[in-house]
Amino acid sequence: MIIRGEEMVNKKVKITETVLRDGHQSLLATRMSTTDMLPIVEKLDKVGYHSVEMWGGATFDSAMRYLKEDPWDRLIKLKEKMPNTKFQMLLRGQNLVGYKHYPDDAVKEFVRLSIKNGIDIFRIFDALNDVRNMQVAIEAVNKYGGHAQATVVYTNSPVHDIKHYIETAKKLKKMGADSICLKDMAGLLKPYEATELIGGLKKAVDIPVQLHNHYTSGLAAMTYLKAVEAGVDVIDTSLSTLALGTSQPATETMVATFAGTEYDTGIDMAYVSEINKHFKEVREKLKDNMAPKDVDPEVLIYQVPGGMLSNMRSQMKKMNMLHKLEETLLEVPKVRKDLGYPPLVTPMSQIVGTQAVFNVATGERYKVVSKEVKNYLKGLYGKAPGDIDPDFRDKILGKDKDIITHRPADDLEPIIAKATEELKEKGYYTKEEDVLSYILFPDVAEEFFKSR
């Protein structure tokens, strides 16, 4: 605690632990089960974290698809054993935890049920930083008593500068954001840029600012240091077993970095190090899914996040194209430029990456165009960050030029009542949460309900 005049400023930095969500999503293909988590979570509850991110992102889909678990049950079971720690989830705005836009009634109901079952903090983002796609989720979190952490997605491009990020944060605060997260999914934010950007955000919005970074480029720990010095309130880390590589900086490392300083986290490093041993055992059990923990500075050139790179490699291996990986990586920024510089975060990372593969595989750019790219050019994902060449758009869409400029979800009919009736007719309805699982992933959920 320091004193400036009569103002008291607490410089202590807080930690959000990601080992139960982004840590294993980044390094273990989201294969950690609830059974893997339960033996250690009572100890996690005593650490003193600002929050634990344990839901959302790809965990919802993976729980049903690969682990044959009900994602809602995970939330309930963990909350029973961790009553003292705030639970945090990653919510893809109007996409919820899926890959397309859902009607407003589904967004509101998903938020309501998530809060009912234990989520406290919602990190809400839109892949294009189109704030219109975040508004309903923010309002729903406000209405049902959760904490709305509105997110500004960070990337590098001619249209993404400090002014863009600050103006976006101001709009989100006006919409009802309780805090702002700067989400650097590819690990592109450099330390001294963090000083300027975090400093600018702190001056522009008088609500807490959190930084989420990935270690992919090797910059993240240094970036956190400069961000903390610039006044960031919370940083995301993962226990060391599931840190580094495409995950976050290690919790123990960052705790040690700030120990004994004015930024001291207040976390006992020896205690979290003991907890980390449990996750070493889990990692050993799931080692067949383990991604490399290497640093890849080439991400600073290609701007391809780790998860996107893994998907591209897998896709190209199936097509016997791995020898053309570098050519494809060089194609990614070209496709991104054509599409108005979308940030490479879900679902745009998959859309841009797949199109780059098509362009290289066919030997002719845009000879084959994915349905998703066409929908994006029609405005069905939201407003592109930068301008798109009208001739390019016309070439891709041809006669199918039904382009929208309004919020995409405005065209979607309510779905809750219809989906509830369908699920009851099929005999799979056991609780109201089942309806949301079914709306988000119809085929996967139905298969899961059968096995359940």
Structure characterization notes:
With about 450 residues, the protein is of the alpha/beta class. It is about 45% helix and about 10% strand. It has 21 helices and ten strands. The chain has helices at about 20-25, 35, 40-45, 60-65, 70-80, 105-115, 135-145, 160-175, 190-205, 220-230, 250-260, 270-285, 300, 305-320, 325-340, 350-360, 370-375, 390-395, 415-425, 430-440, 440-450; strands at about 1-5, 5-10, 15, 50-55, 85-90, 120-125, 145-155, 180-185, 210-215, 235. The strands form two sheets. The chain has an eight-stranded parallel β-barrel with strand order 3-4-5-6-7-8-9-10, surrounded by six helices. The protein has a two-stranded antiparallel sheet with strand order 1-2. Strand 9 (about 210-215), helix 10 and strand 10 (about 235) form a beta-alpha-beta unit. Helix 6 (about 105-115) crosses helix 20 (about 430-440), helix 15 (about 325-340) packs across helix 16 and helix 19 crosses helix 20 (about 430-440). The longest helix has 17 residues, at about 270-285. It is globular and about 65 Å long. It starts with a strand and ends with a helix. About 50% of the residues are buried. Residues about 1-10 have low confidence and may be disordered.
Quick recap:
The protein is α/β, with parallel strands linked by helices.
Mean pLDDT across all amino acids? 94
- Spatial arrangement of strands, main beta sheet: 3-4-5-6-7-8-9-10
Please give the count of helices. Answer: 21
Sheet having the most strands: 8 strands, parallel, barrel
Low-confidence stretches: 1-8
Shape category: globular
Alpha-beta classification: alpha/beta
The helicity comes to 40-55%
Rg of Cα set:
21 Å
User: How many strands?
Assistant: 10
N-to-C span: 53 Å
Residues in β-strands, percent:
5-15%
